[in-house]
């Protein structure tokens, strides 16, 4: 056999070896080790961060745009800062007009009304006019406390019992202004979590403006760790660290958003019953719940209730919570038995 024929006879084996190597390389690339993928950005007047565990590069490349699109849709539905949002258009309608709500707005409003009823009105999505009056809403900041007559006048427009929700149809029996800022971020977290789960993600940590939801564990099988901030103005300190899995987490406090006049601090958390910012000693509440929207609303309700009533409410409703209460020197903690199981000692 000539030298040329011998070389030609070797080529099929060489080609087969090269093809086998290429196939092995491709398969190895598709089965990379799971790692944490992250995406973040602005939303709802704050920021968001989404982390998930994945080994699918193609899916990871698609998810950021889908997350962004979803959060824009939530904001377009529930923002009070956006004048053309679904909620803003409803607030501009006259009282007595029945209107069909989107599925998401229906779900959020239904949950809000349930928590309003269970908390005897401490959580109230119609408190918006008073929030605006005190300078904590879309109308902008104030430097002076409003007078008593202004507060009394606006209190006539406050009360969840003026909202009638039947199926997906809403009827405001008075000209109430609905503000979902104490539950919408939690709902946004839940929707992103749902998006991830529908994409096959089984481990993630979703956060919007400090409200979170966690599922599964990290690639090293450790739990997601969350730092609970100490309610100290002007600095960042960690009060507690918790390990979480399959739970929604939300914190409400009076130590970041406030203004002072004549030595008096006015919190952004408004008590619907008085029309005034809260004045009790409860500094912050962290709530754990099966979903983040519930945790978000429950934390606000408990902040309005104050330490004694909030503790009784948590026990009655089976809410797992950590309360940080102002003392003569520093703070004291009160937590439900179930919350202790999440602490990192």
From TrEMBL:
<keyword id="KW-1003">Cell membrane</keyword>
<dbReference type="GO" id="GO:0016740">
    <property type="term" value="F:transferase activity"/>
</dbReference>
<keyword id="KW-0274">FAD</keyword>
<keyword id="KW-0449">Lipoprotein</keyword>
<keyword id="KW-0997">Cell inner membrane</keyword>
<dbReference type="InterPro" id="IPR003374">
    <property type="entry name" value="ApbE-like_sf"/>
</dbReference>
<keyword id="KW-0460">Magnesium</keyword>
<comment type="function">
    <text>Flavin transferase that catalyzes the transfer of the FMN moiety of FAD and its covalent binding to the hydroxyl group of a threonine residue in a target flavoprotein.</text>
</comment>
<keyword id="KW-0472">Membrane</keyword>
<keyword id="KW-0808">Transferase</keyword>
<comment type="similarity">
    <text>Belongs to the ApbE family.</text>
</comment>
<protein>
    <recommendedName>
        <fullName>FAD:protein FMN transferase</fullName>
        <ecNumber>2.7.1.180</ecNumber>
    </recommendedName>
</protein>
<keyword id="KW-0285">Flavoprotein</keyword>
<dbReference type="InterPro" id="IPR024932">
    <property type="entry name" value="ApbE"/>
</dbReference>
<dbReference type="Pfam" id="PF02424">
    <property type="entry name" value="ApbE"/>
</dbReference>
<keyword id="KW-0479">Metal-binding</keyword>
